[in-house]
Amino acid sequence: MPTPTETVAEENTVGWRFDNTYTRLPDDLFAPAQPAKAPEPRVAILNHRLATEMGLNLDALSPEAAAALFAGQALPEGSQPIAQAYAGHQYGGFTILGDGRAILLGEHRTPSGQLLDIQFKGSGLTPFSRRGDGKAALGPMLREYIISEAMAAFGIPTTRSLAVVTTGERIYRDGILKGAILTRIADSHIRVGTFEYAVRRGAATLQALADYAIARHYPDLADGPGKYLEFFRSVADRQAALIARWQHVGFVHGVMNTDNVAISGETIDYGPCAFMNAYNPATVFSSIDHGGRYAYDNQPAITQWNLARLAETLLSLFDPDSEKAIALATEVIEDFPNRFDAYWLAGMRKKLGLRTDEAEDADLIRSLLDWMQKTRADFTNTFRDLSSPELPADDRYQAPEFQAWHTRWRERLGHEDSQGAAALMRSVNPAFIPRNHRVEAALAAAESRDDLSVMQRLLDVLASPYEDRPELAEYREPPADESNYRTFCGT
Ligand code: AMP
Ligand code: MG
Description:
By secondary structure, the protein is α+β, with helices and mostly antiparallel strands. 44% of the residues lie in helices and 13% in strands. Among the domains are: 9-189, no CATH class; 199-350, no CATH class. The chain has helices at 4-14, 48-53, 63-70, 138-154, 192-201, 203-217, 227-249, 299-318, 322-351, 361-375, 379-387, 395-398, 400-413, 418-428, 436-449, 453-463; strands at 18-19, 30-32, 42-46, 82-84, 87-90, 93-96, 102-109, 115-121, 136-137, 160-172, 176-186, 251-252, 274-275. A hairpin with a 5-residue loop joins strand 7 (102-109) and strand 8. The structure holds adenosine monophosphate and magnesium ion (MG).
């Protein structure tokens, strides 16, 4: 570890600009917390590109100083670490939760004026740890790093990953694993579950949180009597847009509990998530999701359910007359499927190169998806193949049912400017997604051999997902068989 004087000198050159706006909220919304001692911090990976976007210069740090910083051993100047309180509905059941293995260092102001949460995940016990150890293992932290950065490269709103360090500590799960800390960057970590917690603390706490969330994420909302309802409507709108984006790339979040729904509209919590290969609307990867509550095609309906939980917390702010408040909330909740469908259809049109709207488009899209489901076609590659000047030689594309669909689509495209269509398709249909077997291979190399090069190569591929890179064709291949592929929560 560096001496204290070295630490301060190096920190100042990193460029942190901390504010601690969340600590100025009512103090029942958080508890002070400190990162645990890490015996031997070492950098696994640093996200220099993200650091630069944030106005930070990590090049100024020695490897030891970077390890100490991102293991929480030398806190940035101005940070005031807290654990955030929240609750949540997990698989439909209500629980009080809170940051059990995360610590918010505070909010960093970027050169463009954006306020970003800087959070450690896996940095030890907090007042909300319940029976957990507050720690995280290297594999799951690298997994979050890979998938969140891939989502960002797709252009999908998401928390980001700035660094992963190993702590030199062993942690105990099914076996003995390497301890690690992820530094997560977010527009904020306010969740639907934060509101579920706040409303139970009383009217003043609830309103303070709502006003803070509006000021931070929806500053354009008029400061009028209807602003809380408009806030709810805007959150619903961002969720509709977000889930539509997930559907467009075959992303299965896997644990859409209300504590994992961000008010900012970002994807948050990369636990059991994974990408669908063969198109199957019932796709589930999570080992504990037996009922398919969070299956691919249930993501919009579950979001509507989660938004209803948010609305319940806000009723008293919608209208003092509870009947009226319920009617106002119901109108927004019942409109959610329309909102989602509009975003979904708009994005699916783009995936097929269509910039104009025609009544038959929804049916055209549905019949392609039906064919993909029947033939177990790879979701990502089918759309990318359709984006190429010529379809690859593949027997499935010779089948009469597909040919009939293809003719119908080409005719529909005839009403469009064709050159533009191909470019549009290539800009929304990724060639590269984090294929589950590639992610696992990257994690295995890192965990078992301290070899981060497999992950670095994968990250490089995923950083430009829409580029044609024929030399990387192997990264487009789905796994041979993944019928037994399972993912895990909270590990
Ligand atoms: P998640 O599955 O990540 O959404 O976490 C659900 C809840 O469990 C949150 O309150 C976490 O802080 C908590 N949690 C998960 N893992 C641990 C751990 N190892 N120690 C303490 N709390 C944890
Ligand atoms: Mg979570």
